[in-house]
Amino acid sequence: MSEHHLPDGSGSQEILWLRAKGGDEVQRLVAVTALGMCRALATGAISPDTACHRLFGPALLTRLNQMNACPSLRHAIHMATELEDVADLIPDKLASAIADVEAELLKALTDLAPAGLAGEKWLVRSP
Fold this sequence. Notes:
Strand order of the largest sheet: 1-2
């Protein structure tokens, strides 16, 4: 991680850069990240509000649609964007909704071509 000084004078902030190159690698990174978010949700470590604000928002779904991501990944993220609503409207269904998202994310990882170790690492130095 590197320290960057923000132009608004608010001090410094730690920044971690992740990068995936190529459609399949981007999809793998999104799926693995989303699985981690689901695990955090399932254990109560974060709230559905936080998950939807940080990752499971319409911007991610739009980007996946633009890149013509695999259908199972797009479906999983679409379901994930609704987790905040599920928590608010039918909280007793939240655990099963998270499990459904996780299952679809695992399907997406299986549907993507296997990744070899020859690809670049996701963690990169800051530019």
